[in-house]
């Protein structure tokens, strides 16, 4: 069976005997000794803060254009004729757009710390990248200290692929080979967030009434106990039975025995967990709709900080892996990939045009450079770089400097 049929074939039946094996099969990690909850990628994504952070990161990277450039002396040009240019900016493979591909890549990095893709080559050059499920790939070093990847396909078969066949992008690593999984190392915080959500769901499911006890000084018969239990559950459990009055017999009294939500600081805990999850993924809280500490004066700076310190580490890792993993040896150093993050750093129209005016005045930009930044066509005569008259070089100073240089040389 070929590599393509293995990639897209139906997954074979698997058996899990122990909870640990089941967690590993689902790509999860058990939390023995704490809540006992098993955290998988699916469980983690059910926490709104985790889903929001991963969505913000993946979609932000996905909407950025990635182009291949060629360095020609002191100038650079888009390498539109290179086969990798189309792969990066138009068609990574036959069934994904560039945005979908980059979103998947960043989501894998956020959830598992690693992204693996199979490199399809045409005429010796990479023409497609087919993504692997990170749970199905196990990287190792062979006897020559070269990376090899043990891949388990959906049909249950296994194969060992080399670095020439696998494109591997990873985040922070302790061994230089395998990226650390944020979900694995933050599973306690994620579990606490899921526990608070479950607590709130159960609380409102029971009509926002905590558990308690029915007390009486008399002894109830088995028949009376069964009837009372069934009647109480039917009439007073669930949101639809909220605020219905209690009808108690034979001196029965209701005593609530659980702490109130205020006593457990339920809302404060939920807010803190959102901030903690944001810290794990380095996402500003306001980007997942937590505007408690956001103001009109600092939200723009937070957005710039998000690009510089949240997105740039991902973009840099991807760019460098493209340069050394997808380009041939003869193309490395001459061609390079670059994401255009400038669109995310642009301010409002007034601020942009003031910056353009300053750039043109001080000969940093030409008018056509500014028009290109605004996605406008160049105009005739717009390639001139202006120089202020009061900033030109004084010829007398130039001559004196040359004379001093001649004397020093003599």
UniProtKB/TrEMBL annotation:
Residues 388-410 are annotated as: Disordered. This is Portal protein. Transmembrane segments: none annotated. Pfam families: Phage_portal. It comes from the Bacteria. It comes from Endozoicomonas montiporae. Residues 388-400 have a biased composition (Low complexity). Residues 401-410 have a biased composition (Acidic residues).
């Amino acid at each position: 069976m070929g590599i393509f049929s293995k990639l897209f074939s139906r997954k074979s039946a698997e058996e899990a005997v122990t909870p640990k094996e089941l967690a590993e099969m689902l790509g999860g990690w058990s939390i023995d000794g704490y809540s006992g909850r098993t955290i998988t990628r699916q469980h983690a994504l059910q926490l709104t803060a985790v889903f929001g952070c991963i969505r913000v990161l993946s979609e932000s990277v996905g909407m950025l254009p990635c182009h291949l450039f060629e360095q020609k002396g002191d100038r650079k040009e888009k390498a539109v004729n290179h086969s990798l240019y189309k792969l990066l900016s138009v068609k990574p493979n036959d069934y994904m757009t560039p945005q979908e591909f980059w979103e998947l890549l960043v989501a894998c990095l956020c959830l598992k710390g690693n992204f693996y893709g199979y490199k399809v080559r045409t005429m010796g050059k990479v023409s497609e990248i087919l993504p692997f499920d990170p749970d199905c790939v196990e990287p190792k070093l062979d006897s020559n200290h070269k990376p090899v990847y043990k891949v388990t396909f959906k049909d249950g078969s296994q194969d060992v692929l080399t670095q020439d066949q696998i494109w591997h992008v990873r985040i922070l690593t302790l061994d230089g080979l395998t990226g650390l999984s944020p979900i694995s190392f933050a599973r306690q915080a994620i579990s606490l967030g899921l526990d608070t959500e479950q607590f709130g769901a159960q609380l409102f499911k029971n009509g926002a009434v905590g558990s308690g006890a029915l007390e009486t000084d008399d002894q109830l018969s088995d028949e009376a106990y069964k009837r009372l239990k069934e009647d109480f559950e039917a009439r007073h459990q669930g949101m639809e039975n909220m605020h219905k009055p209690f009808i108690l017999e034979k001196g029965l009294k209701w005593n609530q025995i659980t702490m109130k939500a205020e006593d457990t600081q339920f809302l404060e805990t939920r807010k803190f967990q959102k901030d903690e999850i944001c810290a794990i993924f380095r996402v500003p809280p306001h980007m997942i709709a937590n505007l408690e500490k956001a103001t009109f004066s600092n939200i723009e700076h937070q957005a710039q900080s998000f690009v510089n310190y949240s997105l740039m580490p991902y973009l840099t890792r991807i760019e460098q892996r493209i340069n050394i993993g997808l380009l041939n040896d003869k193309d490395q150093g001459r061609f390079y990939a670059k994401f255009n993050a400038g669109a995310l750093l642009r301010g409002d129209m007034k601020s942009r045009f003031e910056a353009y005016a300053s750039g043109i005045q001080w000969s940093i930009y030409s008018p056509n450079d500014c028009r290109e930044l605004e996605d406008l066509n160049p105009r005739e005569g717009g390639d001139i770089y202006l120089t202020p008259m009061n900033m030109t070089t004084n010829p007398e100073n130039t001559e004196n400097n040359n004379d001093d240089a001649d004397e020093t040389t003599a």
